[in-house]
Amino acid sequence: MTQFRALVIDKAAKGLAASFKQVEPSALMEGDVDVRVTHSTVNYKDGLVLSGRLPPKRLPMIAGIDFAGVVTASSNARFKPGDEVILNGFGTSERHHGGYAERARVPAEWLVKRPTAFSAAQAMAIGTAGYTAMLCVLALEDHGVTPGKGPVAVSGAAGGVGSIAVSVLSKLGYHVIASTGRREEEAYLKALGASEIIDRSELSGPAQVFSKERWAGAIDVAGSTTLVNLIAATMYGGCVAATGLAQGSDLPGSVMPFILRAVTLAGVDSVMAPMAKRERAWGRLAQDLDPAKLEAVTTTHAFDEVPQLAADILQGKIRGRIVVEIG
Ligand SMILES: NC(=O)c1ccc[n+]([C@@H]2O[C@H](COP(=O)([O-])OP(=O)(O)OC[C@H]3O[C@@H](n4cnc5c(N)ncnc54)[C@H](OP(=O)(O)O)[C@@H]3O)[C@@H](O)[C@H]2O)c1
Question: Which region, left, alpha or beta, applies to residue 47 given φ > 0 means left and ψ of -120 to 50 means alpha?
């Protein structure tokens, strides 16, 4: 293997900085599968890492929490050269080199075989954000939410997790209430299948204990008062899947909706989710995500654009999902 190009975070004169470098293969970390990375993406967490708000646990560190690519070498029986694989999370770009590189070496147990329904580019159009959206949908289903029980609300609807969640929920027959701070994206959200659009400010204001029961389920990427107000408006026996902190990591709420309306708060983590859950989520994405809607939420970018895209995502400027062409 020769040198390869990567976006590397390292110490700088002031704090940390990310820059494109030629990296020696000897710098790759432990793992039994080598991958030629063809595509990656930009998630909110990539923005946090590249901005220095979520510094890697070791340096230098190749950034990027996702990749799709082709196995080039493997000493694990599950994979052979030529296999097409996906990686989401497992501490990449925090503790282990990530997907913003032409080459990767990772433990086999972190890799999912790419579903034949998706190309590598489509798998990264989904990326960690989309796979997390499906984990949230599964959490709602596992807690008894069905289209017949009532609407489902989605916060941050024009973002990555939100756009895929709206698309999947509408295909499953839910009445989707999409919350967004970008009213100009109303037509986009309606095209993805949102039945109603509400302004983000309806949820992000002061925290309520109870409000009128409006939805049987909710998917939240915002945290803070938005999450509390989603819980406060959840119908008796409903469920809220909490996965993000775009507004804040605080939870300034009350136990009352849990103990008087039997509402469930389901935490959703994608990073360390066990393989069975990942495979279930990717299988359901192959079944329940309309490829035309996936295309509608996706824009494709060059590897060089990642630093700017990472800055943009933290400012809520990115609509839907991004594919980054690496290889
Ligand atoms: N737990 C996990 O494993 C996991 C996995 C993936 C993502 N996440 C988290 O989920 C969140 C979304 O990730 P993403 O990749 O979808 O990011 P994203 O594309 O940037 O979407 C986030 C969206 O949240 C909304 N938003 C931004 N600031 C807000 C605020 N102050 N109050 C309320 N809403 C706000 C915006 O949507 P509108 O403009 O439509 O309002 C924005 O597009 C992030 O916090 C991320 O860390 C967690």
Answer: alpha
